[in-house]
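User: Some background: our group keeps a shared notebook of sequences we're curious about, and every so often someone picks one and asks for a predicted structure to add to the entry. Today it's my turn. The entry only has the sequence so far, pasted here. Could you supply the structure so I can complete it?
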Amino acid sequence: MTQMLDINGILVTQLGDRIPCKLVDVNDKGYLVIYALDPVEINSRLQLMTNSPRINSVIKVTSSDNSGDSYVLEALPEEPIENIRAKIVEGKIKDIIDH
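Assistant: Of course. Here's the predicted structure to add to the notebook entry:
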């Protein structure tokens, strides 16, 4: 069983548009699962930016499904997935220590 993440961020398009999003999972296949408020084209290259944990990675969208009030994206990051997982764990530890 995986724990659902709840990491707020933005997706920045190549035109500089900002789309609010939430990173909710890093699945076993190495894909990021992201909820976005606006539609995103498959094969789009976007920049995923979050504050806590600090993630700043270029991603390529591999699937996009409308789920009512948001869009569920699967995307592959350009940086190794292990780096993103490490940042998430580091952020959770920091949150525990700070609270």
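Suggested note for the entry: The longest strand covers residues 55-66. The chain has one domain: 7-98.
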